[in-house]
Each structure stands twice: as structure tokens, then as C-alpha cells.
Amino acid sequence: MRGLVTVMDGHDYFSHHRRFDMTIARPATRGLMETNFARFAVDLVHIGEDGNTRRMPGAEPGANYDFQFPDARRFYSDQALVYAPGVGEVEIVVNDQPDLYDTTFDLDAAVESNRVHDLAGNYVVIRHNPGEYSHLFHFLRGSIEADVGQFVDTGDLLGKIGFSGAATVYSHLHYQLMNGPDFLTAEALPAVFHQITLIQGDTQQTFSDIAVDTADIIWAT
């Protein structure tokens, strides 16, 4: 992603990624979900010129609290462009899942039909080396431009953010690094980003290598 971005949910102590309860997830998926794939994941959303993550008409800003989001399409990240996070070969592309703006993801139905991977919606997996794979979830249906076997460079266009899979209640890019291509069985890895500019009030500082987490504000180029 490029521009002003915030980590809506990271992997700190209180984030849903870290506190994902595998004692519930394993039996709920009949053992297909072997690991907490999102252990080190980050959900990234754009910040608009008004300082918010979504368009809020009228008096709605006064009720802007918790997760009271009436329409995921209002988020500035909806249909925003997504770029490759690093050099690698595209290992998996899923590009035909519907965007669930007007409904919710049905995990039980996915389990019944052996489609648990559908919780990622439309997604891309990039192999950087034999032990590191980038997983990017919730693309807009039909927007992914990368093909399996294609080599991508850092910053190459991959597609657009949508609302496919279990995108919860806001349009975002879910990113995680893993040691394998199958997110249901691979182990999560901590990710370090290069040349990241963090914004704190009026201060900007660029780091050559840094991990990001919930509420960090990033200027991405």
C-alpha cells in the first residue's frame, strides 16, 4: 500500500490476531486449521485527508467508536492498490471469491464443503525463499493481476483491496509472513519491514528495519 496507512490491528497482546483461540479454531475447522496463522499478522488501512479511516457523513463522527461500521465500502482502503512487499515468485493466486459487503463469511459452510481456505477470500502468496512466504488476504474479486509462477519485484502491482473472505467489518489488507505456502498448516513468522517512515504527531522518522503493530501510522512510498 502507498500513502498514509495505519495498522488497524497488529499482533500485540490485545489484538485478535495474537489472541486467536486455537482450542476453538481447531475443532471448529475439524482440525484443518493447525496453527494460528495470523500470530504476527497486521491489518492495514488507509487514512484519508480528514484524518479518519473511512468517510463519515453528517453527525456520524460523534458516534465513531469501537467497531460501529455501517458500510465497509466507506473505508479509504476499499479498492486501494496493493503492491508486492518483496522480491519473489507468486506461489498461489485466488481471484474468484465474492466480496461480502452485504453478507458475512460463513465458516460453518466453508468447513462443511472443505473450503476453509476461503476465509482468506481472494489472496496472493509470494515465495521469497524456501522458508519465507508473504500471504496477502482480502483482495477485490477479479482485481489480482499477478499469475502463479510470475516473479515480482518489490512494489509491483498485485491488485486491489476488497471485502472477500472473513474480512470482518472493515476493508483492509491482511498481511502475514509464514514459513510455508499453506496458511492452515504453516507456521507464522515475525515480519520486519524495510525503509518504513513512522509518524508520531508532527514527527516523522524513517527506519531501515522495523516491525509495526497496532495503531502505528506509516507513510509508505
Task: Characterise this structure.
The strands form two sheets. Strands 1, 2, 4, 5, 6, 7, 9, 10, 11, 12 and 13 form an eleven-stranded antiparallel beta sheet that branches. Strands 3-8 form a two-stranded antiparallel ribbon. The protein has a single domain (about 5-220), classed as Distorted Sandwich (Glucose Permease (Domain IIA)), CATH 2.70.70. It is globular. It has two helices and 13 strands; from the N terminus they run βαβββαβββββββββ. Strand 11 and strand 12 (about 205-210) form a beta hairpin. About 5% of the residues lie in helices and about 35% in strands. The chain has about 220 residues and is mainly beta.
Find the CATH topology: Glucose Permease (Domain IIA)
Order of helices and strands: EHEEEHEEEEEEEEE
Shape descriptor reads globular
Structural class: mainly beta
Which CATH top level class fits?
Mainly Beta
Helix share bin: under 10%
What is the assigned CATH homologous superfamily? Answer: Glucose Permease (Domain IIA)
By CATH, the architecture is named Distorted Sandwich
> In DSSP terms, counting alpha (H) and pi (I) runs of 4 or more, how many helices?
2
State Rg: 17 Å
Distance between the termini: 8 Å
Low-confidence stretches are none
According to DSSP, the number of beta strands is 13
